């Protein structure tokens, strides 16, 4: 892979990210910033974050295939890597059937999009694919640097590594709540997980593959499910949930600290994992 993400990165929605945030995340020692949600195709935010920093990688998590034409994504990719070689990873994904009336034949649509990126000169090593199920995970390993699974568990990471083989990038996202008050932390995790993710077919199907039941995904999510998807506690405890992905085969973990002040969570985790 031509882009070195490091072992631990952060995932945040575009509204949280700015140049000052990026500079602090780099100072703390994180290897990558993943722009969450569906950033517009011009990818100006990625360029701004790279301009403000020196070495950290910026990745998209993810550019939505339905929203951004492959040619436009490729044009932005080439503009950014010309300015910041080796520091940008184009993450793309199919999104969810609930999000677009055009959703159809997701696997074939992703293959066609990757074909277009090929034609526009975006190398496989410079892109990653949002993937949860076996077919998409295999495709990610075959046609891109690897997979960026979202809302998963270390068990999913273990299964994904077995499916993809040893060489492909595996970079799961992991939500955490640095808070020892279980009720408060679970409430925060439940808000982040239940809406919209427990209303989206792709995620619920994947959770069922991992052994969670209808009762687990109903009513905003059972405590068992929320504790797995957004673990909470002291920095040591939440750091353990991150290293569990690494122990299960991840190359890189994208940490999403929840709360009104996510930076405080990232600072706390740094003291355990990055010092």
UniProtKB/TrEMBL annotation:
It holds the Pfam family Bac_luciferase. Residues 20-116 form the Luciferase-like domain. GO terms for molecular function: oxidoreductase activity, acting on paired donors, with incorporation or reduction of molecular oxygen. SUPFAM superfamilies: Bacterial luciferase-like (SSF51679). InterPro entries: Bact_Lucif_Oxidored, Lucif-like_OxRdatse_MSMEG_4141, Luciferase-like_dom, Luciferase-like_sf. One of its GO terms (cellular component) is cytosol. This is LLM class F420-dependent oxidoreductase. It comes from Phytoactinopolyspora halotolerans.
């Amino acid at each position: 892979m031509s882009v070195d993400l490091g072992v631990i990165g952060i995932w945040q929605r575009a509204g949280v990210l700015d140049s000052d945030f990026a500079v602090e995340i780099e100072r703390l020692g994180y290897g990558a910033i993943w722009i969450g949600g569906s950033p517009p195709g011009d990818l100006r935010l990625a360029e701004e974050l790279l301009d403000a920093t020196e070495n950290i990688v910026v990745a998209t998590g993810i550019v939505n295939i339905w929203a951004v034409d492959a040619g436009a994504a490729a044009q932005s990719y080439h503009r950014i890597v010309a300015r910041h070689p080796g520091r940008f990873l184009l993450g793309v994904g199919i999104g969810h059937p609930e999000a677009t009336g055009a959703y159809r034949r997701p696997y074939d649509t992703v293959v066609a999009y990757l074909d277009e990126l090929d034609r526009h000169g975006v190398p496989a090593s410079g892109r990653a694919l949002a993937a949860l199920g076996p077919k998409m995970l295999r495709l990610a390993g075959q046609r891109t640097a690897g997979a960026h699974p979202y809302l998963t568990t270390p068990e999913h990471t273990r299964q994904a590594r077995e499916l993809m083989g040893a060489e492909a990038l595996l970079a799961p996202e992991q939500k955490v709540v640095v808070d020892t008050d279980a009720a408060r932390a679970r409430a925060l995790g439940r808000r982040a997980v239940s809406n919209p993710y427990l209303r989206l077919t792709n995620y619920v199907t994947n959770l069922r593959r991992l052994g969670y039941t209808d009762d687990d995904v109903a009513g905003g999510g059972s405590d068992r499910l929320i504790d797995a998807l957004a673990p909470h506690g002291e920095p040591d405890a939440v750091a353990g949930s991150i290293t569990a992905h690494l122990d299960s085969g991840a190359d890189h973990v994208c940490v999403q600290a929840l709360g009104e002040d996510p930076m405080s969570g990232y600072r706390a985790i740094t003291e355990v994992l990055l010092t």
